[in-house]
Amino acid sequence: MGERSEDRQKLSDNNDHYITSDDPDHPANLIPSLCAKFWTLGWVTGTGGGCSIRNDDLVYIAPSGVQKELMKNTDIYVLALSKQTDLKNRVYLRSPPCGRPSQCTPLFLAAFTKRGAGCCIHTHSHWAVLVTLLLEAQGPSKDKLFEINNIEQIKGFGKGFQKQGNLGYHDTLRIPVIENTAHEEDLTEFLEEAMDKHPDTYAVLVRRHGVYVWGDNVHKAKTMCESLDYLFQLAVEMKQLGLPWLSDIPVTVPTSQR
After folding, report:
1. Which of 3, 136, 147, 152 is catalytic?
2. Cβ(112)–Cβ(82) under 8 Å?
3. 151-179 tens-digit pLDDT
4. Which of the following CATH numbers is that of domain 105-248: 3.40.50.300, 3.40.605.10, 3.40.225.10, 3.40.50.970?
5. Catalytic residue list contains 152
């Protein structure tokens, strides 16, 4: 969905030098490439979801209402973090001739400003949605946090903001859940609250909606998003089999280390 008209300001519609490059890793080229891949995974179906990349002060954002598998570099919005003095009236350095800024924009900016992230991905993965529904079914006191441990794929996640290294096999991955709102941009304060309450998280689930995942750079954000989707699918199937997400198993140590 698009940003409400009173929440946007276009500084220029023709600063195409911001999105013109032959480098496939340039954010304006990389976002369409990533979104096309995400579409094949069912993450950005029906124009939903999106991606944003920060390059120093410049932020590149996928637009709203565009079929993500068909997106081009000319569809990309660009803004400068340093020019965002009024959160209700964002200033864009470059806007496409057609299209609307994404309502995800303030949530992407939260990842960049509060976590120093270099990339933020938003998906409508049905596995993410199913996990929030399974948590909802557990009742109000058990529906705000997804937890899973003793699964190898947990190693794909960093230990937390400004911490070195990744989680281990026996560690517990915790992802907070926030409630959905009628307008996506209204999720911002709740996402920021979840980030404050869970400073080590790299993702926030949105009930009956999807998930936001961020990382220091594109590579880390993408690999964590893939790992998380794997774990969400696994969690749903574990629940179907009556298997717990949290388990207490002994640590296996090689004979030479005993």
Report:
1. 152
2. no
3. 999 999 999 998 999 999 999 999 999 99
4. 3.40.225.10
5. yes
